[in-house]
Amino acid sequence: MTFEQDAELKTTIRKIALINAIRHHGKAQTGPVIGKLLGEKPELRTSAKEIASLVSEVIQEVNILPLNKQKRIVDERWPEALIKEKVEEEKRLPPLPNVDKYAQVVTRFSPNPDCVLHLGSARAIVLCYAYARLYNGKFILRFEDTDPKLKRPVLKFYDRIREDLAWLGCKPDEEYIQSDRITLYYKYAEKLLKDDNAYVCTCHPKQFREKVLDNKPCECRGLPLEEQLKRWNRMLNGYYKEGEAVVRVKTDLNHPNPAVREWPALRVINSQNHPHPRVGSKYHVWPLYNFACGIDDHLMGVTHIIRGKEHLTNMVRQEFMYRYLGWTYPEAIHYGRLKITGASLSKSKIVQGIRQGLYKDWDDPRLATFAALRRRGITPEAIKKLIVDVGPKTSDVVLSWENLYAYNRKILDPKADRYFFVHNPIQLTVKNVPKTFTAKLRLHPDHSERGFRKYTITPKGDNNSVALWISRSDIDTLKVGKMIRLMELFNIKLERLDAYSAEASFMSEAYNDARRAGASLIHWIPIGADIPCEVVMQDATIAAGIAESACKGLRANDLIQFERFGFVRIDEINAKLTAYYSHR
Ligand SMILES: [Zn+2]
Questions:
Q1: Rounded-to-integer distance, Cα 278 and Cα 262, Å
Q2: Gap from CA of 222 to ligand 1 centroid (Å)
Q3: Distance from the CA of 221 to the center of ligand 1, in angstroms?
Q4: pLDDT tens, 475-510?
Q5: Centroid of ligand 1 to alpha carbon of 180 (angstroms)
Q6: Distance from the CA of 218 to the center of ligand 1, in angstroms?
Q7: Which site from 123, 360, 411, 457 is most exposed, i.e. has the minimal number of CB atoms within 10 Å?
Q8: Long-range contacts at 94-97 (CB < 8 A, ≥ 24 apart)
Q9: How many CA atoms within 13 Å lie on the side-chain side of 138?
Q10: Whole-angstrom Cα distance, residue 54 to residue 446?
């Protein structure tokens, strides 16, 4: 590297480091700076080691500068940089492929109504909906309810799913239910059979599998059309019992993926034993996933299928059928898995937990169902923003609850009014209070226009004392003999303290005294100006205590912050206040 090249490189690093520092309160971070540099200059990847030491050298120089100096340098030398950064941050979803090929973009979300929806479905819903809106297209909800035996749909979940979509703000433009369309699937099955592109297989599954793994056809594949149609009618008229016959789509017997070969399209289910919740025992030939889904995507005009990459093999299967029917397969976007650490996104585990009584209901706070998130005060906006920011990338994404909470906090913080909740209350008696105090507590620290909660504290008795509730959780931080600031009220000196009560005497009113003494700030509620309150925590335990009496004016579904405790959603309010904990 020449001296000039070296100087130029250093300038580039300095620019990246300065911009990074401005975004991180004046302290640039090595990892992101190196990442950005190698993104801009991939040729440097071969000398990553030297680059790393050069970067840390430049970062040291940058980080000793005060933030306003850093900003001034960037403004003077690269005035476009900060604006560009902002635009990049605001950049949203990447464009869909081949939009111009279609008159209208059509996307679909297709759940099986055998459970409520959970966070794992959020990616499919939000992306399909957002793209439909982005291109002024159409978003379809399609209930895939054609397995009354193993994935048996449940009536109430059709409505629950509609409710969840409405809550998320992703209302569909059209809705279909596959169990209404069974005879339509029969029509296409017949066409495939007549065109010699499918056959009715009556082999024992195990023997069939052995043949197919060996790249060999079973005896049924070559039978004449007449025999195929006879068998098909026997499927329909109940001659074949469950498990005795399936319609298979012809594929390439030498396809490298055995799972693609000769996939089953329709099968017999004993509908007397397994009645469907909507159509009862009317049908006993039911389409399987790939068949019904493949037919519907074409008939409903879906142009862009956006789904998890676990569906890649299904696309390969369905493409055989599309060729036979002379159809063109829609654009397919397969995104990676979305995992949330600490959240069970397995439908079967949720269902099992409910059945065993481990969870009280579908909105148990331990679950990642939309119902539970809604009850806990997680906003649909936070979920949507998180999903759009993650986008449809193919790599797997691991998120934590904290990621979601960070989005939610950003939304709640400016909206939520503040109140006091004293968890595990103990009585604090303050003596020698010289006069009546009126505490004016802002409903929101940044919005005085929203008003105040007002409490008048009047000393009583021989030693002019007042009685307040404080939280037992604060005891650990308090020490006898030390000054404590009661938030927005006055300063006291602690004189006696045990697990059940505390005594103190009045010291002074000014906040500055407390600041100078480095006093702890604690919240409080006047005894008598309170309402019993229970907060249901994320692990379903209950934090019991009392809330200030101003909370009596709240309503169910209000989202507030209990100061020094966390954000909560008001669940119920009568003689007692019940809230659900969102996060800190
Ligand atoms: Zn067979």
A1: 30
A2: 9
A3: 6
A4: 888 889 999 999 999 999 999 999 899 999 999 999
A5: 29
A6: 5
A7: 360
A8: 94/391, 94/392, 96/131, 96/135, 96/304, 96/331, 96/333, 97/304, 97/331, 97/333
A9: 14
A10: 43
Protein residues near ligand 1, an ion, with CB under 5 A: 201, 203, 218, 220
Q: How far apart are CA 385 and CA 406, in angstroms?
A: 11
Q: Do residues 548 and 530 make contact, with C-beta atoms less than 8 angstroms apart?
A: yes
Cα–Cα–Cα angle for 26, 28, 34, rounded to 5 degrees: 165
User: What are the tens digits of pLDDT across the range 22-49?
Assistant: 888 889 988 889 888 888 887 888 887 8
pLDDT digits (tens, 9 = 90+) for 389-433: 888 888 888 888 999 999 999 999 999 999 999 999 999 999 999
User: 556 and 572 in contact (C-beta within 8 Å)?
Assistant: yes
Tokens of 536: 């249901």
**How many CA atoms lie less than 13 Å away from 176 in the CB half-sphere?**
21
CA of 150 to the centre of ligand 1 (A): 23
Going from the Cα of 242 to the center of ligand 1, the distance in angstroms, rounded, reads: 15
Output the CA 488–ligand 1 centroid distance in Å.
81
The pLDDT, as a whole number, for residue 207 is: 95
Give the whole-angstrom CA distance, residue 324 versus residue 249.
Answer: 10
Query: Which residue in 268, 269, 393, 262 sits closest to 337, CA to CA?
Result: 393
Q: How far is the CA of 207 from the centre of ligand 1 (A)?
A: 9
Q: Taking the model in full, what pTM does it have?
A: 0.81
Measure 223 CA to ligand 1 centroid, in angstroms.
Answer: 10
Q: What is the 3-state secondary structure (H, E, C) of 207-236?
A: HHHHHHHCCCCCHHHHCCHHHHHHHHHHHH
- 314 CA distance to ligand 1 middle (Å): 21
Residue 227 Cα to ligand 1 middle (Å): 13
